Amino acid sequence: MAAAVTGLVNVLESYRGRDRVMRTLCYSCQLLGGVMMQKNGMKQDWGKSLLIVASQLSHCRTVLRLFDDLAMMAYSTKYGLGKKEEDWLIRCISVIGNLSDQLYYPCEHVAWAADAGVIHVKSEKWWTASTALWGLSLFLGILRSIRILNKLRRHRQKHTENDLPKTRGEIKSQIRSEVLTIIGCASDLVNAIHWMPPGFLWGGCFPTWLVGLMGTISSFIGIYQTAVGGNAGGV
C-alpha cells in the first residue's frame, strides 16, 4: 500500500504524470456523468456534478498547455528533419506531425484567450483550427505506427528459432506498443472529429458518455505505455 502511494505521489510530482492523471479523471467523469444524465432522480444530479468536474479539469489542462510551446519546440528542433530515421516515410510523417503539434498550441492559446476575454476575436475558428491540427497529428501517428508495424513484422519473419529469445521478445514488445498506440490515437481521433463543426463527418453527433469512453480508453493506454516506458500522448 505504501509503495502504491509513493508511486502515485511520484507521478503527481511530475507535470506529464499529473496531466495524464487529470486527463484520465476528466474523461472518466465525462463517461460516468454522461451515463448518469440518462437516468432520473439522484443519479442525474450526480451526473451533472461529474460533468462539472470534467469541465473544470479540461479547462485546467488547457491553461497548463499555455506553457507547452517551448517544450514542443525543443523536441521538434532536436528531431529536425529526422536524418537519423532510416525510413523516409516515417521521417516525413514525423516531421509533418511535429509541425502540426507545434501549430496546435498557438491556435489553442488564441481560442482560450478569446473565450477568457483577453483578446477580442471569435474563438470558434481557432478552436476548429486547433482541433483539426490535433486530428491531423493523430492521423499521422496512426500512419507512422502502421508503417513501423509492417517493418517489425517483416523483421520478425526473418528471425528463426535459433535467434535470441531477448531479440524476439523485444520485437513482440514493440509490436504490442505500436498496436496500443494505434488504438489510443484512433480513440482520440474519433473524438477530434466529433468536436469539428456539425456537417463534417460525425461532428457534434456523439453523446457525452461516448466521448468520455473514447477518451478514457486512450488515457488508460497512455498511462500503461508510460508505466512500461512507451510513448503515447493526447490532448
UniProtKB/TrEMBL annotation:
The chain crosses the membrane at residues 126-146. The keyword Transmembrane helix applies. It comes from the Eukaryota. It holds the Pfam family PEX11. GO terms for biological process: peroxisome fission. It is found in: Peroxisome membrane. This is Peroxisomal biosis factor 11 gamma.
